[in-house]
Please model this.
Amino acid sequence: MNIVDDDTVTWKKYRADDEDYGLIRSDVIQAATNAMMDKKQIQKIVLGLEEAVANVISYAYEFPGYLWVGTSFRDNCFILEIVDYGIPFDPLAENITIPENITLKDIELGGHGIRIIRSIFDKVEYNRKEFKGEMANRLLLSVMIKKE
Model:
């Protein structure tokens, strides 16, 4: 699965702030519902979406910015693409491992969002390439659709 820019992807632009997160969430839930995903899988996707969007809102921009969310359905997969023009950052470059014998009180806060995302989605890719004429951070999240 590769990032594509064609008419099979529905793109929507949002402000990269907490106020627009509810709208992003609603739009992705609608797209997942239209792709015939079951409710449990949609709940998991929303968790992954929240982690990815929270990173853009919190870290991508030093000034108010925007993000784009693309949704598509190909090869029995639901695909989310999250794009921003913020500071270049590859969330997949960090390889966080947690020892098996560690307790919750010993785990450091932060940095676990990508682990959550990887546990939810079957495929996670990042690249920095042009989007609508400017270089952008692009995160692709793909999951096979499970039927109820």
